[in-house]
Amino acid sequence: MPPLASRRLRRFYYRVKPHLPRSVRWALRRRHARRIRRTTGGFWPIDPAAGAPPPGWTGWPDGREFAFVLTHDVESRAGLERVRPLAELEMELGFRSSFNFVPEGDYQVSAELRRWLVDHGFEVGIHDLKHDGYLYNSRNRFARSAERINHYAREWDAAGFRSAFMLRELEWLHDLDVLYDASTFDTDPFEPQPDGVHTIFPFWLPRSPEDSAKGYVELPYTLPQDSTLFLLLGETSPRIWKEKLAWIAKKGGMAMPIVHPDYIRLGDGVEGPEMYPAGHYRDFLRHVKESYGGRYWHALPKDVAQFVASARESLTKVLPPGNGQASAERPKIWIDLDNTPHVPFFEPIVEELESRGFPVMLTARDAFQVCSLAEKKGMKFRKVGRHHGKNMLMKGAGLGYRALQLLPMVARERPVIGVSHGARSQLLVGNLINMPTLLLEDYEHSRFPGMMQPTWEMAPESFQAQKVNGHNGEMQYYPGIKEDVYAWRLKPDAGLLDELGVDPADILVTVRPPATEAHYHNPEAEGLFERFMNRACRTENVRVVLLPRNRRQEDDLRSRWPEWFEQDKTVVPRQAVDGMNLIWHSDLVVSGGGTMNREAAALGVPVYSVFRGTLGAVDRQLEAEERLVMIGSARETDERIPLVKRARPEARIGASKETLRVLVEAIVARANEAAARR
Q1: Residues 427, 409 share a domain
Q2: Contact, 201 vs 221, CB < 8 A?
Q3: Which of 116, 165, 509, 527 is the most buried (most CB within 10 A)?
Q4: pLDDT at residue 465 in the model
Q5: Order of strands, edge to edge, in the sheet holding 417-420?
């Protein structure tokens, strides 16, 4: 949603909010939160891009692994009454925290309570001005409110500020006389202003590039709010806090939650549907103390801010011109995984983009083994859509339906560019909302009609050498083949043979059937495939690892050719396997075309293709280089595919990162160009 439209919607909500019954507000929020959660698996509660330390980061004081900071926002009179019991709970466990109070809300915090907190080692901060959602309605209104906030900052000796509802205009906050602001988060799609700062580290926000000595420290909260976990999403334990804390500790960041005394049930006899047991919080604090003792720097927010301010020259986060959100230094890139080979291909690309500070929105279609393989590799993605079979009408309808499923997510996340290796739903979305797309491809005969035309295209240099035209997009080229992007990552593991029950002395043949549901399929390929399988299964000491395209194809082959599977002559892996590792341990590969052929070529493994569609530029080049053998007849199936052991070299030769580097540089350049167009 465009910023102006979302701001108007927020204004409308906060005007009508006082007139909505509390139960109705919570019911609406729960429904909204649960709908969002279904689409946020790739970046909440953990945003992989947020784990990179800022340039110049030297670590926490005393060599501690991570920082642990506790904060509380007191929203109501009921919350005010629970401040002291909550503080006492923390003291029992050896913790201290900051309590942020609303200066002109529906309660008055006494000087005595503030003094008691400070005397016992706690911190007092400012939470908005009135907690009514109007603070940022206009620049003039904020300037007037800032004068009042500064008055309370002096009176309370408060070092920090946090906005209500996590609303923010970070440039405006320079009007405040505070050391730090804590109105941002690394990732929290459930907030009214859901764009995060994509870091679990604090940073310095200078007043201007010319005067970096003046400014304030930004402390993003990095553990989900208690109200989000327990009241909106209905979590019944602090499991998510613990899991994310483990990730933050590993990355060396700052773990900081927001806990509201308003919602915590402290055994004072007060009950309500919008409350959760204090045991959840106590359990989490005990877990921190017992599992991470001596490893974390437990500090008040003002202590962290002072630490950052002293190193502000190296911890500066520069905002894009005119952007008061500080949502990211880099534009967001959307990558869509549409087919199984896209997973290993994009894995190193995503890692490299994130290491450069680019937030990546990753979606995956529930087809073939896309999601299971992505999960196995630990990729954070959102599952959207599924496969709709070989019927062309169903395929077309499914493609359009998936585009509709993607649209709300894209509108919310607002990536500047879509990148894929032929994901047609993404291309359709890009054209519908005028978002630039970059199509990476390596088979020129794939069809991208009408509304699926890309903005830009990138293909192997073999396209250029053979004068292959693009799909109306501006074409760039990269060296080698797409499988070179990840071939260098292979670490051979012979344990795979044990998993498959294959004797190392056997002749291991990896076989991929033809893609019978693809638009380019030629039935001749099925005859060649079946002839080879019959021959291999009759040959002594040959074991076949068969990799069907999907479950439907596997069931069909088992039904028609049961003899292939007798005595485990042919093995189908029970779960997704590392295809490159399997190929490396194979003596030869026979495939109906596509990625597996080129993976074998990239690794120097003998590979034979029974593909009978129109040959692409990449395969023509590999055939000319004698890295791929094309099989065109039954006779060639018998005579040109030797079933023999191959001599494996001790190490692979020639695997490099050059193809990966060129592709990432091109994606970065196109993302920056797309961002400049906005």
Answers
A1: yes
A2: no
A3: 509
A4: 78
A5: 382-386, 360-366, 333-337, 417-420, 437-440, 456-460, 474-478
